Amino acid sequence: MRKFLIAATAVMVTAGASLLSASAEEKLKVGFIYLGPVGDLGWTYQHEVARQALVKEFGDKIETTYLENVSEGPDAERSIEQLVRAGNKLIFTTSFGYMDPTLKVAKKYPNVHFEHATGFKHDKNMGIYNGRFYEGRYIQGVIAGKMSKAGVLGYIASFPIPEVIMGINATMLGAQTVNPNIKVKIIWANTWFDPGKEADAAKALLDQGADVIMQHTDSPAAMQIASERGKLAFGQDSEMIKFGPKTQLTSIIDNWAPYYISRVKAELAGKWETDNDWDGLKAKMVVMAPYTNMPDDVKKLAMDTEAAIIAGTLHPFKCPIVDQDGKTVECKGGNHLDDGQVLGMNFYVKGIDEKIPGK
Amino acid sequence: MELLDPKFLESVILSILAASTPLLIAATGELVTERSGVLNLGVEGMMIVGAACGFGGAWLTGSIIVGAICGIVAGALMSLIFALMTLGLAVNQVATGLALTILGIGLSGLIGAGFVGERITPAAHLYIPGLTDIPFAGRILFGEDAFVYLSLALLIGVWWFLYRTRAGLVLRAAGDNHVSAHALGYPVLRIRLFAVMFGGACAGLAGAYLPLAYTPFFIPGMTAGRGWIALALVVFASWRPGRLAIGAYLFGAVTILQLHVQAFGLGIPSQFMSSLPYLATVIVLVLISRARTGGSTAPAALGNTFVPDR
Amino acid sequence: MQLVLEKRAERSNTIALVSPLIAIGLTIVTMVILFAILGKNPALALRVYFIDPLTDSYSLQEIAVKATPLVMIAIGLSLCYLANVWNIGAEGQFLIGAVAGSWLAVKTNGTDAGPWVLPAMLVMGATGGALYALIPAICKVRFGASEILTSLMLVYVADLFLDYLVRGPWRDPNGFNFPTTAEFDPVATVPILVEGGRLHLGAIFALIVVFAAAVMLSRMIKGFEIRVVGAAPRAARFGGFNSKQLIVLTFAISGALSGLAGIIEVAGPVGHLQPGFSPGYGFTAIIVAFLGRLNPVGILIAGLFLALTFIGGEQAQIAMKIPLDVTKVFQGILLFYVLACDSLILYRIRLVSTSRQVPSGTA
Fold first, then answer.
1. Domain boundaries, chain B
2. Nearest residue in chain A measured CA to CA from C277
C-alpha cells in the first residue's frame, strides 16, 4: 500500500511538473559538463567564467546548467544523457575524455547539438572546438628566451599527448629565435591537476638550474613556488598573477566566452551547424595576460610577436622544422606545418635532448 | 649544475623535508592510535577535512595559528565519530574507518567549496640571522617553517610518552592485550579514546599543513592519498617512532627524487617512477613480517573489538 | 551513572530485521538537516534523489548498469570479510582484470576474430584479477604481512600500470596519440540487453553471482568453512578447517569477481580501455558489502540502492545544483547508521551506576 502511494505521488508530481514546464516560456537550455571543480582556478574555471558570460549576455533567453567533477569513464555518458533529458538543447563537453561518450549520445539524439572541446571525432550534430594555445606558447618561448639568465627553462608537463607536445615545441621554437642554445628540462606530472605534485615539480626544476617555469598543468602551485624563490614563471589557463605578483610574466588565458556566445547565438537563431573550430589569438579564443615583470624591450618584442601571429605573417610552426634526430619534417601546409601535422604531433624539435616518454 | 653541488643538495633536502612533513605528522598520530589497539583507516578523510577547515580558519582570520587549530579540532571531531562507533558501539573498525574516509572527502568538498580560489600568505619560515645563513646546514636546521619543527617535536614527544612514561606503557599494554589490561583495572576504552582523538588531531594538523604551508590555497582532494600512505608508513615502521621518521623521509625522498630523475632526462617511464613508493612499501612490509617468526609485529590486539565485561 | 555496552545473551532477531529501516530513517533525517543547512528544499531534494530515478526506464537501466560492477565486486569482498580477511584492494583487482581481458581485445582488434573473443576476454579478466589478488593473499599466509596494506598499495600500482599501457604500447595508432586503446570490435563488446539503453549482459552475470554466493554460503561446506573461520577461528582450527587455504581461496574468488567486473565494465559501457575509467568502484563496493551486511541478497539490494543514490545525486546536481559531494556525505552517513544499528543486534545499551566500577584514580 505504501509503495502504491509513493508511486502515485511520484506520478502526480511528475505530471504536475511537466504541466507547469509546458506552460512556461521556451528558454533555450544550455548544458555544460566539467571535468573538475569550478574552483580549480584553471581549465574548468575558465569554462565556468565563459558560462557566466553567457548568462550575462543572454539573460532570460537561456537557462544554463552545469555538472562538475564528471569523471571521464562510463559516468560521462550518463551525465551527458541526463542533461539531454533535462531539456538541454546545446551541450558543451569540456574535456578530451568525453569524446566517445558525447559521440554516443549525439547519435542517439540527433536533434540536440553538442560541442566537444579538444577532441577530433565529430558528427552532424556534434562540433568540435579547441584553442591554438601553441601560439601563446610561442610568445612565451620568446619572452622566456630573453628573460632566462641561465638559459634553462623548466617545463611542468601533464601527459605526453599532442596538445602538450606541440606546446613544448612551440615554446622551444620561440625561445630559439632569441637564444639558439636555450635548453629545457621537462617533468611529466602525469596529472592535469595536483597542486602538491606541481609544487614539487617546480622545486625540482628550479633546483636543477631552470630559472623560468612554464606549465601545462592547471593549478597555481608552480607560480607560487617560483614566487617564493624569486624566479619567473608563466601562468596557465587563467590569470595567476595573484599568486606571483612579481613573478608572472604572462599567462595563456583560455577565453571561451566569445566562442560560446557565438554558438548560443547561432542556436537561438536556428542556424547552428557542426563545425571544427580551432581558433587562436586572432579570434581571441586565446588571450595573453598583460606582459608584466619584464623590461620594455622584451615587452615590445612579445607584443610584436603577438601582432605578427595575429596578422598571419608569423606561424609558430613555420618550415623548415627539424626534429630532435636531425630530420627535417615534411612541410604539408605550404610554408608551415598543416593542422593535421600539428594535431598529431609526437616528436620533439631539435634542441630538446630528452625523449618523449612511451615512445 | 653539479650533482654534488652543496646548494643543489640543500635544496633537494629542503624539498624532501617539506614533502615528508604531512606524512610524518599523520603517521605519528595513527601510530599512537594503533599502539592502543585501534585501526583507524579514516586518516585520509580526517586529513582532508583538516585541510578544508584549516584553510578556512586561516583565510577568515588571517592567522596561520588559528588555521592550524581549526585543522586540529576538525580532525579530532572526525575521529570522535569514529571513536563513538568503534569504542562506544563496538562496530567493526575497518568498515567505520572507510566510512569516515568517504564522509570526510564529501564533507571537505562541501566545507571547502566557499574557499576555492582564495589565497593566503603561507606559513613563515624561521630566520635567525647568522644561523640560517650557514651554507648547507643553515636553512635545513634553522630555516624551516613551524610545521616541520613541530612534526619532529611531536615524534620525539610521542616516543618519550610511549617508552618513558607509565601512561605510555599502559597504552601499549591496552594495544597488546586489552583483556589483561582491563583485568588489571586500566580503563581500556578511555585510553583508546584518547589515542584515537590524538590520531585525529594529528591527521587534521597534517591535512592543514598542505594549504597553510605547502601550497597556500585549497583545492578539493588536495591530500591526494597521503592519508593512505601514512597508514602504510605506520606498518612500514613496525609501529616504532624512530623508524617512522626514517620511513616518512624515505617516502618523501622517493616522491621528490622521481621528479628529479625525470628532469635529468633519464627516460624511465614516469608511471614506473611514481609507483616506486608503493612497491617499496609492499616489499618492506613483506620483509619486516618475514623477519619476525610467527608473523607481523603489530600490537596484538590491533583491530579487535573490545567490550569490557561487567 | 553512565551508558555502557553489554553483550546480549543471543542475537536479537527483531533488531536484525528492523535495523536497516532505522538506519535509513536516521539517514533521511540527517540528510534533511543537511539540505536545510545548504539552503535546498529538503522534500524536493529527497524526491529528486530517491524517487525520480525510479520513475523512468532510462534511469532504472542506468541504476542496473551502475550496480552491476558494485554487486559483483561486493559479493567477492563479502566472502573475504566473512572469513575476517580484509581485502581492500578490490579496485586494483578490478583494473588488472580489465587490463588482462583488454589485452585480447587489443591483440585481435581489426582482425576478423570469431565470437570466442568475448568469452575468452572474460576468462582472462577473471584470471588476471584472481592472480593479482593472490599477491596480498600469499604475502599474508607466507609472510604474515598485513593484507589491508599490501592490497591497498597494489591499487596504486595497478592504476599506474594501466596508465603506462594505455599511454604507451596499447595506444590506438589512429588516436592522435591520445591515451586510449582503439574502440573494441563488436565481437569484443558485451552485448546490450535492451535496445536504446545501456543495460548489458553483465547484469545477468551479477545476478548469477549473487545466486551462486547465496547457495555457496548456505549450502556448501566451503561456505560454512568461510563463515566459521571468520566468526570463530579457534573452533575452525578444531574443526580442521585450513584457514590459510581459505584465505587464499577467498582472495582468489574475490579477485576473480573484481577482475570479471572490470573487463565487463570496459568491454561494455566504456567500449575501450582508458586511464581513469573507474570511478572508484572497488572502494564503493566495500561500502556495498557492509551495507548488505555481507549477505548476498542484502548486497544486491544495497548495490541497487547505492547506485540509485549515484544517479539521484547526478540528477540533483542538474535539477537543484546540489554538489556531488553531498552524495559522498550521504553514503558515509548511511554506512555509519547501518553499522551502528547493526551493533544493537549483538549488544544492548544500558545505564549503570558507576559505583560498581574498579577505581582508577580519576572518575
1. 6-223
2. A73
